[in-house]
Every structure is written in C-alpha cells, then in structure tokens.
Amino acid sequence: QLEALRTSHDLLADSRKEYEAASQRVPDERVQHLLHRISSERAALEAELAADIRHHDPSARPGDGTVGGTIHRALLTARDAINSTSEVNVLVECERQESDLLGHYDNVLDSADLNESTRATLAGQHAQIAKNVDNVRHLRKQLEAVVH
Fold it and tell me: S-S: 13 plus which of 21, 65, 70, 137, CB 3.0-4.6 Å?
C-alpha cells in the first residue's frame, strides 16, 4: 500500500510540473488558465497523499516526481523550442498523460490491498483527474473547431 501511494504521489508531482510547464508554453489564455488550475489542483492531491504516506510511515519523505517525468518535460521543452507547438498538440499530450495517470490509479485501486480511507482518497482523486481529462478534451475540441 505504501509503495502504491509513493508511486501515485510521484506521478502527481510529475503531472503538476508538466501542467505548469505547459501553461507557460502556450499563448492562449484559456489554455494557460486551465493548465495552471490543474497544476494547482495537483499540488493539493500531492499534499493529500503525502499526509496519507506519513500516516502509514511517520519517517517517510514523499518524493518530488520521477526521473522519467523530468526527462519527458525536457523533451517537450526542446520539441517546442524547435517547432511551434500548437495549443491543440499540447492538449492532446495532456490527454495522453492523463489517460496514463488514470490507468495507474485504476491498477492501484484494483490490485492494491488498501484500507478504506486510502481507497476513498484514491477514488476521489481518480474522479477529479477524470473530470480534468474531460475539461482538457472539451477545450481541445473547441480549439480544433476554430482551426478547421
């Protein structure tokens, strides 16, 4: 259970950083606002999991992301420096990452031996992430309709 929480926390940290970085790469204010809001919400989800981790192990110090997440952000920044990446492409990438994060949560909720409190926390976070996927998808579709 503790390892699943740590991994979830690290993935949320990666997600928070990726949303914040993406919000700074796009000129459209609607996209900036949405990505910044999601990044801020991720910080709250991280704090919630960090408290749960410390509840299970008072000496635990939750991480601040993964090496893979750091590399991914660097690659996206380099890609955007070379090519002019559209808001639609940024949102497509956000949707993909969110789907991966939801898959992780599905696996943890399905397979981990979780106490009821932790299960409720993760289920609530899953629902919030799913709602954000819908918001990202909706904005992407609006932008695509304007482009086409």
Answer: 65
Q: What is the amino acid identity at position 12?
A: L
pLDDT tens digit string along 3-56? 889 999 999 999 999 999 889 888 999 999 999 999 999 999 999 999 999 988
Looking at residue 59, its pLDDT comes to 82
Q: How confident is the model at residue 129 (pLDDT cuts 50, 70, 90)?
A: very high
Give the CA distances from residue 22 to residues 67, 117, 124, in Å, rounded to whole numbers and listed in that order. 18, 33, 25
Q: Enter the DSSP assignment of 83.
A: S
Three-state SS annotation for the chain: CHHHHHHHHHHHHHHHHHHHHHHHHCCCHHHHHHHHHHHHHHHHHHHHHHHHHHHHCCCCCCCCCCHHHHHHHHHHHHHHHHCCCCHHHHHHHHHHHHHHHHHHHHHHHHHCCCCHHHHHHHHHHHHHHHHHHHHHHHHHHHHHHHHC
Distances (CA, A) of 106 to 5, 102, 130: 13, 6, 11
Neighbours of 39 (CB within 10 A): 18
